[in-house]
Amino acid sequence: MKTTLTKTLKDLGVREVNLGTSTGQEFFGSGNEISSYSPVDGKLIGKVTSTTKEDYEKVIDSAQTAFKTWKTTPAPLRGEIVRQFGDKLRELKQPLGELVSYEMGKSLQEGLGEVQEMIDICDFAVGLSRQLHGLTMHSERFGHRMYEQYHPLGIVGIISAFNFPVAVWSWNTALAWICGDVCVWKASEKAPLCSIACQNIIAEVLKNNNLPEGISCIVNGDYKVGEYMTTDKRIPLVSATGSTRMGKIVSKTVGERLGKSLLELGGNNAMIITPDADLKIAIIGAVFGAVGTAGQRCTSTRRLIIHESMYDKVKNTLVDAYKQLKIGNPLDENNHVGPLIDTDAVKMYEDALAKAVAEGGNKVVEGGVLSGEGYESGCYVKPAIVEAENNFEIVQHETFAPILYLLKYSGGVENAIEIQNNVAQGLSSAIMTNNLREAEAFLSHAGSDCGIANVNIGTSGAEIGGAFGGEKETGGGRESGSDAWKVYMRRQTNTINYTTDLPLAQGIKFDL
User: Fold this and answer.
1) Is the whole model's pTM more than 0.70, yes or no?
2) Which of 98, 264, 398, 473 is catalytic?
3) What share of the chain is helix, strand, coil (3-state, %, to 5)?
4) Residues in the active site (predicted)?
5) 384: which of 58, 255, 292, 424 lies 20 to 30 Å off by Cα?
């Protein structure tokens, strides 16, 4: 693995030590070291230096300077740079996917899939660069024309989480770039090398096009570095992905300075299985949604709401399916489940299972922490299934681990929808049914209250082109598709008078 990793890092231009803050092509940093250990085998991958306040000021100066050039670059030409970035990602998909898998712990297929999401958002953004449209409106005044247009905001601060160490950044930055913004990225301190790899890739593209390096910048460190961004009036928009607790702090801090925030926070996602469901796809969707990325997706399936008439059949089928799961090194494509991000996550998993049992839950798939050969990192756990009630305190909270709660409902689909909606979060939801009336009820204004509502596919995952995000304590943000580009721009209404008269509002006369 060491030989393969060394080649992977070399392909991405990542040295193994002394990396940290970047204003573009050069890395520097004078803060404390952050060591990146792989949850796969517990080995040290590399070290980065955290960003000091002095380092941060250099980054912001570089970004402000770059913005002066970038905002006046025609949008289609900005799209051309994003196209070149997407092409570089195609060339480096394998090594970057391997790094994502090894540093974060998700399966290699998922690591490669995450890089593909980056490529897809680049393609989407390139087309969008020629469609940053406004509206033209008829004025009530003779000889006047009204329209609205969108302008770049400036510096966009991006705070991303460990579970998607490259894709979520690209969702934001690809759109922000074609909108004329420059970006400063604080990646998770649990996966810092992924951010450096991405920075190296875009830095090469910018250099080859003689563009300012400050168009893309990174900073590294813990929440204190994030506070530099949230309190900085020079950053009009902060996009933050993470826990609801973190999002509330970001929202309050940015709001106090009347800045804008785009929040992608926790999910407590449910899948409803009705008597009219196709059980084959329902089981596949439930298992992947619950155990994919070891349950560390914001869209992971946490709750399975099953009609009482088929509850036992679904439960027994799930138990059999879980027996077939292979847990181990995520770079081995024969394995279905990799490790949790670190031992703190393992402790959270154990505490959640204990809490569920203490509240009256029944473990039908035991779970547990794995040890021994192949599990030396201490980060591998068994996916667990617990029979529970929706009002359990632990069920009401998101646990970033492969724990699936089984909930039973009776009566019509409206009862299942009520259970699904009765949590604080509102990200992703799904229903498995071949009944058209049930499907339409689920998608109606009285149905799912989540930002994502799927029929006959699971809760997990997202497709570039559709706006991604959720309601309630999920934060209300939207990224990666539809008209999400508008959040990265400021809207301006324009009125043009092409006559020799100046009619005043409310018929006021003011003759000179």
Assistant:
1) yes
2) 264
3) 40, 20, 40
4) 264
5) 424
